Amino acid sequence: MPAKVYTDKDADLAHLNGKVCGVIGFGSQGHAHALNLKDSGVQVVVGLYKGSKSIPVAEEHGFQVVEVGEAARKADIIFFATPDLKSASIFEDEVAPHLQAGKALLFSHGFAVHFNTIVPPKEVDVIMVAPKGPGHIVRRQYLEGKGVPSLIAVYQNPSKQAKKLALAWAKGIGATRAGVLETTFKEETETDLFGEQTVLCGGLTSLVQKGFETLVEAGYQPEMAYFECLHELKLIVDLIYESGIAGMRFSVSQTAKWGDVSVGPNIIDSSVKRKMQKALKDIQSGKFAKGWIAEYAAGLPNYKKLLKDGEKHLIEKTGERLRGLMPWIQKKNIKGAQAAY
Q: Residue 334 pLDDT more than 60?
């Protein structure tokens, strides 16, 4: 059965009247939610740690900026716009002491709540509003009078108003202009992790690297391998993004289509699907989360090594050189960039 889509007519900003919305963090999602809510007439306070580089940025946008504990004390709805594993200590040290009946916690991803790194007290509402796009798109679409589709979920509802609060927040950031779908913390978390690991990030980058390596090891120039296995990927992804897989196939050559449908399934075959199913079971059982939490607690040694190893891959040096020949590609130095808090 298709999911119900909630729009502007299903949400009422009046549920945020008289409430202070505390946004903890001012990175990608934090700044977009804060600015869109402010422009929607909602009272917003931004919570940041002392010395945060985001303080002057938030102040320039006209926000009252206070330390996190003070934001939690002032706010009726507290939004965590902070990295998954940092959120736990922020919650324990700065937010939990100020929670009481009538307040609500809001997240844009369910990881911390679903895997119990944050355990909210039973007397507070716990909700999610998760735009399906990066913060700068959430902001841009709002300014253009549009919105980014979003998910909402309710984890705890002692006030019996939690869903109305989630829909009101979604309307405040412009999401109901596009459409809002209801999910659960469990479903959002597990499907999000699965997509990242097996298709969008892990699966895609590994596929690109293995294809590049296969051509180079067979004696082809790395530049040719880069063009065919990475550069042209954007063309195909854009076509799929705009028109679906069938739409992409309509737009490419007959030879490409035949290679797609006759060879592709032999590469990404049933053995790959079985590995995907194993990855999903590790997510569902909490095995992945447990390992990631342990890695973070140890200071991220394997995480840092694997990222560093990836930066040394021949495809990176080849790509850097070739992108220098393409003035239409906007050059960005985003290495080391992290969500601001």
A: no
